[in-house]
Amino acid sequence: MPKIEKITKQTENPYVNLYLVEGKNKVDHLFRYYVASRAKTMEALKIKTKKNTPDGVLMYSLYGEKRDKIVLVRQYRVSIDDYIYEFPAGLVESGEEFHEAAVREMHEETGLTFHPLKVDPCYEKPFFTTIGMTDEACSAVYGWCEGEISRKYLEESEVIEVVLADREEAKRILREENVAIMCSYHLMHFIHDEEPFAFLK
């Protein structure tokens, strides 16, 4: 097993930072590896705490009387200089329970009121997003929304269009648009499962 010998913080940013990890690999050769993290200090890195707590949440939410539409956001992302379809999502604030974060973030991004479902914890525990680059982990929260769409709660940096997609539109999005991978897998369930939450049972 590789041995980590030194970690150096490379940046000072409020939402994500870069850390240089140095050590020896399985054949005792030196390695250098960069890790992006939501951690604000080295002590808070998961490489140090060995605890997987959710940095963020994403919301799988149905909408409408028949709950036959899924709530998506079409969001501009600097990393690709383009728009991508995602689920509404956001960061969990310090001391905040992640279901509460889901309700807050849904309202901030869409104006909608989110009602989380009670599901087996194995479906909503934090899972790592892109482990080759970052220690970030997010919890998925499942439920349904009501209310009117509003953009008035968006931050200055957010460029977001709310999309209420039926199954046909979800198929089109998968075929033709940029889609975040976590969103794509859940859209496949939405399209093909007769009962939208069947995969949670």
Structure description:
The protein is of the alpha+beta class and 201 residues long. It folds into two domains: 3-49, no CATH class; 56-200, Nucleoside Triphosphate Pyrophosphohydrolase (Alpha-Beta Complex). Helix content is 19%, strand content 35%. Strands 4, 5, 6, 7, 8, 9, 10 and 11 form an eight-stranded mixed sheet that branches. The longest helix has 13 residues, at 98-110. The mean pLDDT is 96. Its cofactor is Mg(2+).
CATH superfamily of the largest domain, by name, is: Nucleoside Triphosphate Pyrophosphohydrolase
Give the number of DSSP strands.
11
Could you tell me the radius of gyration in angstroms? 19 Å
Q: Tell me the domain tally.
A: 2
Distance between the termini: 38 Å
**Mean residue pLDDT:** 96
* Content of β-strand: 25-35%
Structural class category: alpha+beta
Q: What is the CATH topology of the largest domain?
A: Nucleoside Triphosphate Pyrophosphohydrolase
CATH architecture of the largest domain: Alpha-Beta Complex
Encode the helix/strand succession as letters.
EEEHEEEEHEEEEHH
The main β sheet shows up as: 8 strands, mixed
Number of helices: 4
Oligomer: single chain
CATH class of the largest domain: Alpha Beta
**Approximately how much helix is present in the residues?**
10-25%
Gross morphology is elongated
- Poorly predicted runs are none
